[in-house]
Amino acid sequence: MPEVYNWQLGRKMDYPYGESHPEWQFAFVFNINRCIACQTCTMACKSTWTFSKGQEFMWWNNVETKPFGGYPQHWDVKILKLLAQEHEREGASMTWNTAEKGGSQRPYGTYEGMTIFEAAKRRYGPEGHQRALGYIPMDEEWRYPNISEDTASGQKGVPGRWAGDYASKLPEHKTWFFYLQRLCNHCTYPACLAACPRKAIYKRKEDGVVLIDQSRCRGYRKCVEACPYKKPMYRGTTRVSEKCIACYPRLEGKDPHIAPDGAPVETRCMAACVGKIRLQGLARMDKESGGWMEDRKNPLYYLVKVEKVALPLYPQFGTQPNGYYIPPRWAPRAYLRQMFGPGVDEAIEKYTFPSRELLAVLQLFRAQQKIVFRYEIEPGPKVFETKINGRKWEMYNDVVIGFDKNGKEVARLSVEEPKYVRPQKYYNSI
Question: Of the CATH numbers 3.30.70.20, 3.40.1190.20, 3.30.1390.10, 3.40.50.720, which one belongs to the domain with range 3-356?
């Protein structure tokens, strides 16, 4: 296999195709700490894209409860188990070397284990070795998109067993669960693309969105098997696979009602988010290195590369996903490190004790349907002071301003949310 550089792993890795990167990359950040699992995003996607016959069990966007929920069921446990088995067979381990972490090309250190592409070379079948380690879920595993919702883990990870001291203090709870928001990560090195024998899957050069060419697909389900996140889905009525398309007409600025000036617009799941947990955008790519070009005032770049408060989901798989998460403060760190990599402790520390700039940028989440490409901050007065974990912390009522791709101001928000008192004119007024 050719070698490509994966900055999330801090090293080169095997991948079936050589380096090839788009001009921009569709990416997003989800703040798990804010999600209330209202499933508004899920139904927005469902009512837009997967409402037809044969798509009844397709949920391109879903919100599942961790640690026990999942769609399809146990998708993460199964692929992690397969990957662990290959490491045991080779006498290796899925460890990280964090001694030399630093910079944009090795922010979390170096992953010393095997990715799903490297582990696949040990699994041979009639057609040779797999392109990516994976499995095809059984039909039963696709039945319940919301299974185990709000099912908490006890002290020893037993569902339904409450810890005696369940009103625990942050940063960790003894009894815990959290919501994980999922859609296609539109990976830099997609496993679905690597595995497709028909070359029906491709990344768009303009925005890095991963799509399936329906005219070329023959429904072999190799993409379903290979994707570790299980986001390509087979449709029995048409006998081809389908997946999230990142609402690319909106990314192209082709929604005249929202953006008559042709500015890129957020996807449906993003725009519908009630809890304002989502921030979506486009990162400019360095076509040679495969990393993001420095863009200090792009909110995505700031959260992922500068503040490092947003982390990739299961980076050890090796697909370099473009979906990032601000991890929950209350869940056990060991579980979160397995899910988001070794940057968890630093990310939670920065979110718990936010800098003045981070506090302002967090206001941009779901602030406008137009995608924010750049932000500016106008300093404001100090409005609050307290201690967090024994350290002095101050809050300033700064104003953050967001601009779209055309440089037009689309959002202006203060850190301290304004309060409005409705006049009591009538007794029966609402």
Answer: 3.30.70.20
**Per-domain residue ranges of the chain:** 3-356
Write a three-state SS string for the chain.
CCEEEECCCCEEEECCCCCCCCCEEEEEEEEHHHCCCCCHHHHHHHHHHCCCCCCCCCCCCEEEEECCCCCCCCHHHHHHHHHHHHHHHHCCCCCEECCCCCCCCCCCCEECCCCHHHHHCCCEECCEECCCCCCCCCHHHHCCCCCCCCCCECCCCCECCCCCCCCCCCCCCCCECEEEEECCCCCCCCHHHHHCCCCCEEECCCCCCEEECCCCCCCCCHHHHHCCCCCCEEECCCCEEECCCCCHHHHCCCCCCCCCCCCCECCHHHHCCCCCCEEEEEEEECCCCCCECCCCCCHHHHHHHHCCCCEECCHHHCCCCCEEEECCCCCCHHHHHHHHCCCHHHHHHHHHCCCHHHHHHHHHCCCCCECCCEEEEECCCEEEEEEECCEEEEEECCEEEEECCCCCEEEEEECCCCCCCCCCCCCCCC
Sequential pLDDT tens for the chain (430 residues): 799 999 999 999 999 999 999 999 999 999 999 999 999 999 999 999 999 999 999 999 999 999 999 999 999 999 999 999 999 999 999 999 999 898 888 999 999 999 999 999 877 766 677 899 999 999 999 999 999 999 988 766 566 565 555 445 666 787 899 999 999 999 999 999 999 999 999 999 999 999 999 999 999 999 999 999 999 999 999 999 999 999 999 999 998 889 999 999 999 999 999 999 999 999 999 887 888 999 999 999 999 999 999 999 999 999 999 999 999 999 999 999 999 999 999 999 999 999 999 999 999 999 999 999 999 999 999 999 999 989 999 999 999 999 999 999 999 999 998 888 877 776 666 6
